[in-house]
Amino acid sequence: MEEMLSFGGLPILSWADDLEAGALKQAVNLSRLPFAVRHVALMADVHQGFGMPIGGVLAAEEMVIPNAVGVDIGCGVTAVRTDAEGMRKADIKRVIKRAAEMIPTGFKHHKIPRPWTGFADVPDIPLLKQGLSSAQCQIGTLGGGNHFCSVEQGSDGHIWLMVHSGSRNYGYKAADSYNKAARQLNDAEGFVPREYNLAPLPVHSDLGREYLAVMNYCLRFARANRSCIFDAFFQAFCEAAGPRQILDHIDIHHNYAAEEVHFGKTVYVHRKGATRASQGEICVIPGSMGTPSYIAEGLGNPDSFLSCSHGAGRVISRKQANKQFTKKAADKAMGDIVFQGWHGDLSEAPMAYKDIERVIELQHDLVKPLVKLHPLGVMKG
User: Fold this and answer.
1) Burial bucket for residue 25 (CB in 10 Å: 0-12, 13-18, 19+)
2) What residues contact 259, with CB distance under 8 A and at least 6 apart?
């Protein structure tokens, strides 16, 4: 259940029990935005981000904030239930090894353009047109950081496959370009204090409409990217496990803004590191690469603007994790999970994240857990 906080602006409803000072300060800034509506919602996995905390939900009237969507527009998760009911460790190793051969990670791209129907109807916007040739080689690539492909054992007895990735360079370029444009506009118009780093764009302005068009195209691209990655991952899985069927397929975004109606008002709901969880909607809440994840059902709580956490949430920054952790400690935390290596980046070690069980418990009024997934094999981006 949420806790209500107040610091002179709109109320802040928090489902977290360990709200760090940096994230709280950013939430207070959100609560003081003149166009914010009703309250600010903080999910159980909340932690400090850029401008807006990750795990934050903001409803804004007539405004969209590029920095409240984030740099990886449309980042999200695909989760698929297969008809397999178990796997030998040797076969899991084959899946991860084969997937690493087929799916480019980090800054690697495909060497030749890849097909996607969405490339034929890219909006006539310079940023998208200029990035088209690069995007055609980036689609179907995992990226780095916390992006991953995993083989999971479900509490329902089935093997699940998960893919976590987003809109790649398209999303990053869009976020950077339109945040700069919003900052310039904000300097001229004075919508919000500059130090908030939450410069908005009026949704009915030319620039606002353009950003929304680019953002929505990036959402499409992100979903297509996960689909292409999954196709390769499923091929690797079937090569090791034999021909298999897909029983359920779930795909969700957790970095975007959408026009919705809440508390009788049409608003733009910004979910930065938060997942939509309307009544009966199926959600995916990943833990870390070494801890369980959950398939859950949304309960449609209006106080969270129909949202839930997008994962476990960090307890330590990426920079600090790489300073503090050792490879030996990170390997130990992964236990007997098949894992292809850290690539010199220890920021995604399990101990960098909150306890997923506690995060799920804290949002019992937002989602109902359906299936618990235990990682068997992970390919890190």
Assistant:
1) middle
2) 266, 267, 268, 269
- CA dist list (Å): 279 to 42, 301, 302: 19, 8, 10
Q: What is the DSSP string of 15-65?
A: --SS--HHHHHHHHHHHT-TTEEEEEEEEEEEE--SSS-EEEEEEESSEE-
What is the tens place of the pLDDT at every residue in 55-82? 999 999 999 999 999 999 999 999 999 9
What's the CA gap between 20 and 317, in Å, rounded?
Answer: 12
Cα three-residue angle 24-29-34, rounded to 5 degrees: 145
Q: What digits encode the pLDDT tens for the residues 93-109?
A: 999 999 999 999 988 89
Alpha carbon distance 191, 333 (integer Å): 46
255 is written with which tokens?
């970095």
Mean predicted lDDT score pLDDT of the chain: 95
Which residue among 310, 343, 364, 374 is the active-site one?
A: 310
Reply yes or no on whether 374 is catalytic.
no
* Class level of CATH domain 3-380: alpha beta
Using CA atoms, how far apart are residues 238 and 233, in angstroms rounded to an integer? 9
pLDDT at 364: 98
Predicted pLDDT of residue 1: 56
Contact 13, 42 (CB under 8 A): yes
